Amino acid sequence: MIKDLELAGLIEKITDQYETLHGNGLVRNALAAIEIPYQYRVAFDIVVHAHETYRMEGLSYDDLYLGIIGLSHYIYAARVDISPLLQRRVSNKVGNEAILERMATDNMKANLGALADRVSELYVLAVKLDNNANPRKPSHKSYPELNMVGTFLTSQTPGLLRQ
Prior knowledge:
Layout: H1 5-21, H2 25-31, H3 38-48, H4 51-57, H5 61-91, H6 96-133, H7 149-154
Helix pairs in contact: 1-4, 1-6, 3-5, 5-6
């Protein structure tokens, strides 16, 4: 189990950023449509909601890495699928409601970028801690999917996730 104050603080920032992203009903409802594989979703939930129990129990590298992969898939799907959908939906609207929806859509993009930055920091820190704790056989070597995390966190190219 990993117990590290810097990691705990970063997980707390990710949780806060995730909650900020979901603060608007329009965005929250749209993001609810994102599907990611079950194993990643479970670990994603553990990481996003771990800040409360993390300091007491710690977090396993398996849950952490699967959570990072799940978060990167989630951010990618939100950026590539959900954001353009919301933009198209609000582009033809007029009036005060349209202005609020456009603002929510624009804020979503900024919040996704901030969340992606935090997840990237989490990945770098996790690998550093893992390499220090397990120099001969770090756990991250068991997850080839981690090689795509950076791409999923930054890409806007459709079709990278095929389930």
